[in-house]
């Protein structure tokens, strides 16, 4: 798959230079979905921006989402008539916008869509993510039809998790680039 068809979806406040998403963008020339306002994320605005970029692509994309980017992928898929524009998604450390401490800041992100995604997906969750409990990450994976990978105690699976360029995550992305030969399951 062409690097132009790998679309990076950062979460709230964007991904800094040491984040694995930024490292992949620099190393492989992947495209980052730029949002108009990283500090005050409005779901409708973010969905519209994703739709706009996907409509410009020449072939279906693979989404590489982190945190709120995971919720963006699910929300877009629930509302867009153009779901054929996405081939697969790597969903990493979804943020739970319905947690009490996040609800006040991410008001437009609730309710979180809990429909099966119309494309292949892998969800990687951490047991000690401060923004989403392991149980909730598994609930998202089950609802979205994503394969679930338990990544142990890795926090928010970001720069502070010490993953560097996260080669294992890159291997997961490469799996999504292959033709779908396995059925979806939650581990």
What does this structure look like?
The chain is an alpha/beta fold and 187 residues long. The protein has a single domain, classed as Rossmann fold (3-Layer(aba) Sandwich), CATH 3.40.50.1820. The chain contains 6 helices and 6 strands, in the order E-H-E-H-E-H-E-H-E-H-E-H. The protein has a 6-stranded parallel beta sheet with strand order 2-1-3-4-5-6, with helices on both faces. The C terminus is likely disordered.
As for the CATH topology, it is Rossmann fold
CATH superfamily: Alpha/Beta hydrolase fold, catalytic domain
Number of strand segments: 6
The CATH class is identified as: Alpha Beta
Shape: globular
Helices, by number, come to 6
How much of the polypeptide forms β-strand, as a percent range? Answer: 15-25%
Order of helices and strands: EHEHEHEHEHEH
Rg result: 15 Å
Q: In this structure, how is the largest beta sheet organized?
A: 6 strands, parallel
| Uncertain runs | 182-187
CATH architecture: 3-Layer(aba) Sandwich
Overall structural class, as computed from helix and strand content, comes to: alpha/beta
Count of structural domains: 1
- First-to-last CA distance: 27 Å
Strand numbers in spatial order across the main sheet? 2-1-3-4-5-6
Keyphrases for this structure?
about 190 residues, alpha/beta, Rossmann fold, 6 helices
Outline of the structure:
The chain has 187 residues and is an alpha/beta fold. Helix content is 33%, strand content 16%.
Topology:
Blueprint: E1 6-9, H1 20-28, E2 31-32, H2 43-56, E3 61-66, H3 68-79, E4 86-92, H4 100-103, E5 120-125, H5 134-144, E6 147-150, H6 167-177
Parallel strand pairs: 1-2, 1-3, 3-4, 4-5, 5-6
């Amino acid at each position: 798959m062409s690097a132009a068809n790998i679309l990076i979806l950062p979460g709230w406040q964007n991904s800094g230079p040491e984040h694995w998403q930024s490292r992949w963008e620099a190393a492989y020339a992947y495209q980052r979905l730029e949002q108009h306002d990283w500090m005050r994320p409005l779901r409708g605005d973010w969905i519209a921006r994703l739709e706009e970029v996907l409509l410009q692509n020449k072939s279906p994309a693979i989404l590489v989402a982190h945190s709120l980017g995971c919720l963006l992928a699910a929300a877009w898929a629930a509302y867009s008539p153009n779901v054929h524009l996405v081939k697969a998604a790597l969903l990493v450390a979804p943020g739970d916008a319905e947690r009490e401490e996040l609800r006040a800041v991410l008001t437009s992100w609730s309710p979180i869509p809990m429909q099966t995604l119309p494309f292949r997906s892998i969800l990687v969750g951490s047991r000690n993510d401060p923004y989403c409990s392991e149980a909730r990450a598994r609930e998202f994976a089950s609802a979205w039809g994503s394969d679930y990978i338990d990544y142990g105690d890795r926090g928010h699976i970001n720069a502070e998790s010490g993953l560097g360029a996260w080669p294992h995550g890159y291997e997961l992305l490469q799996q999504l680039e292959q033709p779908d030969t396995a059925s979806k399951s939650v581990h």
